[in-house]
Structure formats: structure tokens, C-alpha cells
Automatic annotation (TrEMBL):
It holds the Pfam family Abhydrolase_1. It comes from the Eukaryota. It comes from Eragrostis curvula. The keyword Hydrolase applies. Gene3D superfamilies: alpha/beta hydrolase. Epoxide hydrolase involved in the biosynthesis of cucurbitacin and mogroside tetracyclic triterpene natural products (e.g. siamenoside I and mogrosides IV, V and VI). Cucurbitacins have cytotoxic properties and exhibit deterrent taste as a defense barrier against herbivores. Mogrosides are nonsugar highly oxygenated compounds used as high-intensity zero-calorie sweeteners; they also possess pharmacological properties such as regulating immunity, lowering blood sugar and lipid levels, protecting the liver, and acting as antioxidants and antitumor agents. Keywords: Hydrolase. This is soluble epoxide hydrolase.
């Protein structure tokens, strides 16, 4: 079954959407992370389609063939979750199954937090739901130092200038090949200079696939994606009304055992100690072997984890219909 491509005018932007599977199947919304595209779900979409799901994978605003507003303020969590709500309305879908990775996981959690009425169940890869902290995000991260990638991404133009020292494919490969424990560069070094791009192709991505990503980022640039990071403090202020709120929809969290940041953010301890469960009461956790871009690196295992979870909800819906 071929991938279909279309654009939707939603929430003031045009989103490019890739779709695979029967148009009358239960909708699974697939949300990519940084620095990626709908293409990061290329190994999940056929598996979902084969099981009867309608896989919908947009390029998020700022990415690929979707619009990239110039104003950094247009990348708040309210704007991007607003895009998703409008997309579901465009599709005429009252409830959705949502799967997200990296920034897409953060957005999947926030769609579930802000609009639980629209979410049947959520699967998040690599990034857990963290409750709103006591201080703005960048204040909390300042102790890590200027070498930390999120800190470097804050200043408009800084990361873009550093990235521009390399061709786009090399920039992407440096991120995709990450196998270190922390994304922290030594003092005075930009994170993109610190990361290494292996000479050989990645074991889970062909050079042709890397070229497909690079072609889109070459056209759209990195400012839109980086603006998501520049809105972290704004997001902290905007989400004050949800301080202490829990994710109440059924959820599954898939954690890669060698994911970057697992130790530095305390993610592993947070998940294994039950901290995540306390904030997401109806939670299942799966810890699998792999690195950050897990759905591409270990597609069969990830597909199995996603499908075994989502099947529960489509079967119960059919039984209650």
C-alpha cells in the first residue's frame, strides 16, 4: 500500500502529511522529533497499515514541506498542539491513537494533557512526561553549563551559524549517530563541532534515506526546528494552569537502554523508580535495546511494542460498538 501525500491548511499554517493504510481504519497520529521528518516513521507506517490502521505522519510546523513561520513565538507548545487538534478536525476524527518520538513524544504527552478528550491512547518513545518544574526550563538547565546543547540552541542564530560550517547531510548524520551519554560539549566548543559523523553509513539508514532528509533540511533550514527549543521558557509560563496535572489517558512509554541523556536527565531513575507512573497513572513501560532514534534502529521491536498496545484499544472499541 503506497504512501499518500497531501497538505492541509490548519491553524494558520499548511502542514504536509504522509499517510498510509485504509482511509476508514483507526487513525494513528505519528509525531516526529528533532531533527527529523515524517520519514522517521517509514518503518512503522507499513506495519500499521498492514494491521488495518490509518497512519498519519505530518511534518511538524517548521519542518520539511510544512510551513515554517519566521517568528520564534509561533513554535510554542500551544501552537504545535493546536496544529494537531486542527488536523484531527480536518480529518473528521473524534479520537485518535497518538505515537510520538523525541519532541514528538513531548507533543503527544501535551496533546494528551491539554485535550484528553481527543486521545484514545498514547505511545511515547524516549522522552517521558515530566511535570512542570518549579522554575523556567533554562534556569533549571543553566547549572549544566554553556556546553549543553539546549543552552546553545537558545540564542537565535548561534546554532544555525555553527551548523553552516558543515553540509546538511553531515549535520544530520552527527545527530543520528549519537552514542554518547550526554549532549554536552567541552568549554568553548559548539555541540555540532563536538559530535562526530562516522565515515560509513549508519547501520539503520541508507545513504539514499539520509539524502532524502538532507534535501528537505537543505530547503527548509534548521531555524524552525531550533525554535522549539527557544520556546521552552515560554512553554513553562503557558502551562502554569496545568501545574501538577496528570496524564489520564492510557499510555505506553518505550525507553531505549542506551539513549543519550538517560543518565544526565535522571530519566532512567525517574522511570524505574515509579516517578513517571505517578504522573501517568495508566502506564505501561517497555525498556528495549538501542539508542535514541529507536524506531528506525529497532523497527521490528518497536512495531511489536506499538501494535500490541494499540490493538487493545481498537479491539475494545469494536467490542463496545
Amino acid at each position: 500500500m503506497a504512501v499518500r501525500h497531501w497538505n492541509a491548511d490548519v491553524n494558520g499554517v499548511s502542514l504536509h502529511v504522509a499517510e498510509q493504510g485504509p482511509v476508514d481504519g483507526p487513525v494513528v497520529l505519528l509525531l516526529h522529533g528533532f531533527p527529523e521528518l515524517w520519514l522517521s516513521w517509514r518503518r512503522q507506517m507499513p506495519a500499521l497499515a498492514a494491521r488495518g490502521f490509518r497512519a498519519i505522519a505530518p511534518d511538524l510546523r517548521g519542518y520539511g514541506d510544512s510551513d515554517a513561520p519566521a517568528d520564534p513565538a509561533a513554535y510554542s507548545v500551544f501552537h504545535v498542539v493546536g496544529d494537531l487538534v486542527a488536523l484531527l478536525s480536518h480529518l473528521g476524527v473524534p479520537k485518535v491513537l497518538v505515537v510520538g518520538h523525541d519532541w514528538g513524544a513531548l507533543l503527544a504527552w501535551h496533546l494528551s494533557l491539554l485535550r484528553p478528550d481527543l486521545v484514545r491512547a498514547v505511545v511515547a518513545l524516549c522522552v517521558p512526561f515530566f511535570p512542570r518544574g518549579p522554575a523556567p526550563t533554562t534556569e533549571s538547565l543553566a547549572a549544566i553549563g554553556d556546553g549543553f546543547y539546549v543552552v546553545q540552541f537558545q540564542e537565535p542564530g548561534r546554532a544555525e551559524r555553527a551548523f553552516a560550517r558543515y553540509d546538511v547531510a553531515t549535520v544530520l548524520k552527527k545527530f543520528y549517530a549519537i552514542e554518547i551519554d550526554e549532549l554536552i560539549a567541552p568549554p568553548g566548543v559548539e555541540i555540532i563541532d563536538f559530535l562526530e559523523a562516522p565515515a560509513s553509513p549508519l547501520p539503520w539508514m541508507t545513504e539514499e534515506e539520509l539524502g532524502q532528509y538532507a534535501e528537505k533540511f537543505d530547503k527548509s533550514g534548521f531555524t524552525g526546528p531550533l525554535n522549539y527549543y527557544r520556546m521552552l521558557d515560554t512553554n513553562w509560563r503557558l502551562t502554569a494552569p496545568w501545574n501538577g496535572a496528570k496524564i489520564t489517558v492510557p499510555a505506553k512509554f518505550i525507553l531505549a537502554d542506551k539513549d543519550v541523556g538517560l543518565k544526565s536527565f535522571g530519566t532512567e531513575q525517574y522511570v524505574k523508580s515509579g516517578g513517571l507512573q505517578s504522573n501517568v497513572p495508566h502506564l505501561e513501560v517497555a525498556i528495549i535495546e538501542g539508542h535514541h532514534f529507536i524506531q528506525q534502529e529497532q523497527p521490528e521491536r518497536v512495531n511489536s511494542e506499538i501494535l500490541s498496545f494499540l490493538d487493545k484499544f481498537t479491539n475494545s472499541e469494536e467490542a463496545s460498538a
